[in-house]
């Protein structure tokens, strides 16, 4: 077997201090009790953080000043904005965040006519080493904590509410498609999903059906996700329907082959009743051949079923100095037609933020 340049266990770097968002409701009350405060203060603090989307203790005027001073330790600053860039008429906002130890991560807030979506990071960097991805080429620094993941969402929700996208909007969709492989940081990502989807004041109250968790195909983790019984959408970054090419484009394919990954996606769709999204970055003269479109459609039709899968075609957002480029529009259109002719739904993702280095990892690579 080919030696894999993959990192499943993040380097041993200290996670940030404990945060309210790291804790479930029972643990929050216990933590408040350790401070000598009654348990209901934890519920008040959670109401402000998850319900009112604020971490500003001075704004929590229903809490006595002495209590606020003690509770400050449960709201440490986790992710601080370093750079913010906007484009698409203000409807796309990319933020570079700095953690307590200087590590960098990114998120992108996007407004649409019917919704607001945030794309968040689950790791600082990524260990999956996909050669066309800026994040993958930068390597993995560390996992993000549950609190760091959740706080990206909270701050995005507050920004959308306060009109950062032009008019007040409610954040309704969260996609784990930023920096990192979410299922390689499994425990913290699942805890974050629960914080994001639990009703306020226990969580942010975003519907699980509005949450998408992506993976390059960590098969055991996909099966573990099925058992969580959290009806999020699973997005599998396939990028090639054949093992020969996918071994190169997605090195984890050396461990779990295309057939194993697609079968795991079928198990997820069958058990949860949720349609699986197949992510496919279309790369000029690499994976955009008509025969690969035919093979992709056939593979998904036979192994998952046409009603349980959708192909999300992604025009590649090239990074500076990269040899990888997006496929021409006629090639893209032909690819879509061939997949659809196989009976599989296939659409092209709306491209956002090309002028603001919106490909994951570009801002972090430059330090902002």
Automatic annotation (TrEMBL):
**What EC number(s) has UniProt assigned to this enzyme?**
2.1.1.192
Could you tell me where this protein is found in the cell?
Cytoplasm
Q: Does the keyword Metal-binding apply?
A: yes
Active site at which residues? Answer: 106 (proton acceptor), 360 (s-methylcysteine intermediate)
Role of this protein: Specifically methylates position 2 of adenine 2503 in 23S rRNA and position 2 of adenine 37 in tRNAs.
Asked if Methyltransferase is a keyword of the record, the answer is: yes
Q: What is this protein called?
A: Probable dual-specificity RNA methyltransferase RlmN
Note in the entry: Reaction proceeds by a ping-pong mechanism involving intermediate methylation of a conserved cysteine residue.
Q: Name the HAMAP family for this protein.
A: RNA_methyltr_RlmN
């Amino acid at each position: 077997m080919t030696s894999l340049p993959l990192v499943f266990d993040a380097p041993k770097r200290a996670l940030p201090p404990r945060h309210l968002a790291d804790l479930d409701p029972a643990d929050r009350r216990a933590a408040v009790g350790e401070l000598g405060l009654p348990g209901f203060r934890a519920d008040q603090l959670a109401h402000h953080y998850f319900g009112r989307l604020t971490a500003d203790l001075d704004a929590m005027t229903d809490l006595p000043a002495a209590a606020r001073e003690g509770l400050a330790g449960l709201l440490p600053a986790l992710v601080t904005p370093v750079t913010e860039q906007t484009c698409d008429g203000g409807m796309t906002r990319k933020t570079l965040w700095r953690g307590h130890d200087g590590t960098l991560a990114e998120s992108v807030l996007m407004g649409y006519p019917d919704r607001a979506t945030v794309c968040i990071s689950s790791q600082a960097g990524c260990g999956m080493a996909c050669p066309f991805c800026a994040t993958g080429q930068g390597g993995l620094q560390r996992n993000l904590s549950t609190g760091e993941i959740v706080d990206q969402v909270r701050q995005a929700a507050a920004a959308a509410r306060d009109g950062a996208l032009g008019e007040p909007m409610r954040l309704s969709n969260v996609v784990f498609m930023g920096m990192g492989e979410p299922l390689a940081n499994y425990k913290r990502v699942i805890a974050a999903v629960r914080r994001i989807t639990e009703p306020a004041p226990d969580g942010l109250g975003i519907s699980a059906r509005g949450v998408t968790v992506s993976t390059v195909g960590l098969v055991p983790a996909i099966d573990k996700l099925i058992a969580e019984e959290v009806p999020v959408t699973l997005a599998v970054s396939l990028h090639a329907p054949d093992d020969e090419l996918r071994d190169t484009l997605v090195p984890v394919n050396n461990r779990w082959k295309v057939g194993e990954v697609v079968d795991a996606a079928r198990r997820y769709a069958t058990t949860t009743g949720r349609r699986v999204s197949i992510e496919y970055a279309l790369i000029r003269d690499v994976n955009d051949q008509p025969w690969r479109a035919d093979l992709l459609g056939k593979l998904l039709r036979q192994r998952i079923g046409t009603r349980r899968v959708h192909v999300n075609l992604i025009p590649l957002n090239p990074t500076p100095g990269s040899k990888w480029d997006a496929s021409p529009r006629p090639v893209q259109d032909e690819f879509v037609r061939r997949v659809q002719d196989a009976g599989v739904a296939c659409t092209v993702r709306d491209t956002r933020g090309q002028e603001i280095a919106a490909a994951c990892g570009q801002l972090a690579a430059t330090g902002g």
